[in-house]
Amino acid sequence: IFAHAKVYRDKLRAYATLIKALGAQHKLQDATDMGFGVLSHLGVQRQSLLPDKSAVLRDLMALKSSLVDLSDAELLNYREMVNSDMVAAMSFLQPLLLYNFLSNGEVLLKIVFHMLYLTLKYGICEESCCCLSSLSAVICRMKDYDASERIGQLAILLLEKFQSRKYISYVHCCVFGVIRGFNRHIKMSIEPLLSAYQIGMQTGDIQMAML
Fold this sequence. Notes:
InterPro entries: Hybrid_Histidine_Kinase. This protein has 211 residues and is an all-alpha fold. The longest helix is centred in the middle third of the chain and has 18 residues. The radius of gyration is 17 Å and the shape is globular. It has a single domain, classed as Serine Threonine Protein Phosphatase 5, Tetratricopeptide repeat. The protein is 71% helix and 0% strand. Helix 1 runs antiparallel to helix 2, helix 1 runs parallel beside helix 5 and helix 3 crosses helix 6.
């Protein structure tokens, strides 16, 4: 496929499969590096050129306030992403969230930053719910539980808007497995987490289902 592709876009599906294969073999750094290589061809800045952790955190916190103040209706009526390169970029960034969620917090921050930037600039898409749920988990680690809860709610709204069954395990893991216990009784998270496990096993998202 790589040798006979006429244009780079013809290689995207093969790259997506290869990246997931590397992730399944727990070659997370290789998968991440390949993912950012693809992103550079789609017009998204390479990992090595991203700002440092403190700069990313500063920018994320600046965006946090606007997200927290966003109403449900404003989010649901936000324009949808139509740029095909950016839609493809978001689909490549999403698995990188998983590969770096527990192993590399600094890279995770940069991935969340990129996804949030693309969402705000080009519009919402299926993968935006994963971006917001990851951001909610990041903010939760910083002990801003109210903001974390609100952004988690926005992630659930997008999940429902796009009926993104394939991302239920990821979003529910972040929202109900990480942040919800700080604001509500843990018993309220059991059913959503069980649903996330069952759907993850059905859709092949075994890594998130088993978390």
